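During the practical work, I selected for study one protein's amino acid sequence and its backbone structure tokens, as given directly below:
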Amino acid sequence: MNKSLNIIHGEHRAIAAMMHGLRQIVAGIEAGRMKPDFVLFRAMIEYIDKVPEKVHHPKEDEYLFARLRQRCAEALPAIEALEAEHRLGDARIRALEAAMLQYERAGEAGFAAFKAAVDEYVEAEWKHMNKEEHEVFPLAEKHLTGEDWAAIDAAFLSNENPWKGAAGEYEQLFSKIVNIAPAPVGLGPG
């Protein structure tokens, strides 16, 4: 697999880990094993907002999708669908935040709506990442040139580690999440 695709795949794993953790905590609350931790929810949603929405998706659009659009007509329907999903990303994050705030204000009465918002967001992101990895990546590997990959690699190599960020900007946030999230999601009290 190409360097850029490996980086994107690593970013997908980081995003998936955060979404899986969020879903596990919500399931624990639903089962009565956990209590809501709104500091943790805010941190997890902040990570989801900053990494995929501000770093990951814009680079996919500007570099990978733009180059593939020029080289492979077969990829256009998938690219257009993925770009449309990227444009909805901010609204989906704001809906998740609003559901979390309503849950915090309403207490237990707000849980069902928050759970529904988490489920909706996570399901949409899983489908989105799978479409990228199973439809777009193979077409990119087949149709992009060495020059295309050089430009894409230059952009994505600057992302470095999705757990830390290029300048370490996510490391503190990720460490905070790991330290306050209860097991099996993190190291916090459970």
Notes: The mean pLDDT is 86. The chain has one domain: 3-180.
